[in-house]
Each structure stands twice: as structure tokens, then as C-alpha cells.
Amino acid sequence: MTTLEQTVLEGFSARFGKTPDSLWSAPGRVNLIGEHTDYNDGFVLPFAIDRRTLMAVRMREDRVIRIATSFAPDTVEIAIDAIGPDTVSGWSAYPLGMVWGTREFGASLDGVTGFDAYLESDIPVGAGLSSSAALESVFGLAVTELWGLGFDRQTIARIGQFNENQVVGAPTGIMDQSASLLGARDSAVLLDCRSLDASVIPLGLADAGLVIAVIDTRVSHEHATGGYAARRASCELGARLLGVTSLRDLTVDDLGRAEAELDDETFRRVRHIITENERVLETVRTLRDRGATAIGPLLDASHVSMRDDFEISVPELDLAVSTAQLQGAVGARMTGGGFGGSAIAVIAGSKVDALRAAVESAFADAGYAHPDVFVVTPSAGASREPLS
Ligand code: GLA
């Protein structure tokens, strides 16, 4: 049993005075490439990581849900029938909003009983590693199975996105929940965000002697307001002005027309999405034909596009990326929604200690907060865990 499993089981017993009868887990994610393409019906290539949220559950006989965690002092208690977009808030809106979401997606909750649940996580919050999607995914999978709702994983991901959009109020896409639910060991998930077709793409990192290092800049980001929503609005404007349903419908052949018809800023937003979709597909082809050591230039180009065209990077992310490149990374880029969070570097395992030292010293010299550098392993998606 891992330490995290032990902590969640002990936390459950301490809070509720009983032992749990099932255990569930869902991972955070890192996006290898394909940023802001999800809400443009495009392609993304994320993977689930070896940092997870665990949820211990014990079924009740009434229709009450009680939910608690070590990272908030309160135990939230609510009747199943009272759960709606206006009755949940704070941290518990992420899991509890999923109950309302299952109803909106057609589930009948007549006859189901409530439960007590305790959550514990080692996914850093605010680092751009989708700690919130993990909360939604673990809860969505657990209620789907415990209540026999019959949703497949793609649908649970859609309910998670719906919850994020309607209850939490962040206009995010489908990527994070999909990665958390569909991830597979040593692999990334190629997701077509229009059809929701998902394919598992082996990364072959170990064979190539490579790892993926996360550089958490400790600059926290916020997607419910501000830049994220503004980028989404620019993309929708660009699609409308160019007469397509979404930017997914455009290719590099349309760039000339886009430049002629759009203002400079909207054009650059559109160019990022068009070229990023191409880079995702090219990354998949490169992984298959030439292996992980050959994907570096695509990651580097993705970062430049986010920095200059989409303008979602921050100086800390740029410094993390350039330092990783100087330390011999195969490729590096910021990952996730931007405006803070983490960068990733694909790098030889033997170079990680030097990378950490170099990033720490570059950040200290620049007067930035102390960054956190750690390796993540592509891992399996959400699952029911054995209870010993
Ligand atoms: C956040 C959102 C995702 C996606 C990324 C950017 O992580 O939750 O839906 O849009 O940003 O690729």
C-alpha cells in the first residue's frame, strides 16, 4: 500500500469514525503538446501522471453525501436531491457538481443512496497539472460505477467539462478530464476533441533513456477569468470571421487568407491553433517513425508559438524552457493553460539533477520564487483500487 493510500484510509476513519468500503483514484495530467486546441475541436496529446487523487468511500443508507479532505477543514454535507449549480461552492463544487452533471446527462438518481467520501491528493494545486480535473474524474468514475449509471469514460470526461464550465465557471475544454480518465502506462492519449476518438500512443521514453521533467514555476494561474477566456473568445471570433464552425476546420493553406482578413492579434491567435494542431499530428508521426528523441523541435516550436502568437507564457515559463534547452533537453515547452503553472522538458534521465540545479539558480538570479523540478511518469487513468 502506498503512503497516499494509507493516508486516505486513515483520514476517512478519523473523519467519519468507520472504515471505507471502496477506494478510487484519478491522476493529474501533463500535456505533451496541443495547447488551447481542445476547445477549438482540435487535437491534443496529454498523458496521465503518477500523481493522483484518491477517494475512499463508504455507502450510506439514506440520500446524503458527506465529503471531506485533508486540504480543507470543513466536512460538506448535502442531500443528493439538493445538489445543483447554485448549492455547491468552493473545493467541493468540483466533485459534488458531478452529481448534478450526471442528471443533466440523463442519469436517473432515483433509488440510489448517498455515501461518505474522503479525498487526498499529491497533485500540486495551481501548478497546471489538473488537480481539479482529477477531483472530477475520480468522483465521476466512482458514482458511475457505485450507482450503475453506465456512462463510458468519454462521457464522464464530458460531464467533468460540463461541471467545470457550468458549476465552477471556467470556460475550459475536454482535455484534462480525458487525460485523467483515458491515460495508459508509458503512453500519451491522442484525442480528437471533435469526435472524442482517443488513441493510446506509446512514448517509448525508457527505451530512449529519456524522462519528462516538470518545472513548476510556482506562478499560480486562474482560468475562470482573464486571459484564458479572452483567448477562447479570440479563437471564436477568428472562426466566425473566417466562416468556419471552429478553427479545426482550417489548415496552413488558410493562413494567407486569415492574415488578409483578420486583425493582427486575432490572426496570431488563429495561427497558433492551426500550427499547433499540425504539430500534434506531426508529433504522433514522429514518435511512431523516429522515436521520442526526435520530437524536440516540435515541442520547442510549440513554446515559441504560445509565447509569441498566443501570448500565454510568462517570463518564469520562458526562463524554465530556455534553461532546459541549455541543459541539453531534447525539447521543452510550457504546458497547460498558461499564465503560470509548469513547463516540461523531455531530457535524458542522467541530466535531471543538473537541470534542477540550473533552473533553481537561474530563478534565484532573476529574483523569481523557488521552482519545483520533478520527474513525472506516464501512468494509467482513473481506476477502482483494491482495498486491503
Ligand atoms: C487548461 C484547460 C484545458 C486546455 C488547456 C490548454 O488546462 O482546462 O481544457 O484548454 O488549458 O490547452
CATH topology assignment of the largest domain: Ribosomal Protein S5, domain 2
What characterizes the major β-sheet?
A: 8 strands, mixed
Compute the average pLDDT.
97
Q: Work out the radius of gyration.
A: 21 Å
Secondary-structure element order, as H and E?
HEEEEHEHHHEEEHHHHHEEHEE
Q: Which architecture of the largest domain per CATH?
A: 2-Layer Sandwich
Q: Estimate the helix proportion, in percent.
A: 40-55%
Number of helical elements: 11
- The fraction of residues assigned to DSSP E strands is 15-25%
Whole-number tally of structural domains: 2
Q: What is the subunit arrangement here?
A: single chain
Assign an overall shape: globular
Bound small molecules, deduplicated: alpha-D-galactopyranose
CATH top level class name of the largest domain: Alpha Beta
* Straight-line distance between termini: 8 Å
> Which stretches are low in confidence, meaning pLDDT under 50 for 5 or more residues running?
none
Structural class: alpha+beta
| Count of β-strands | 12
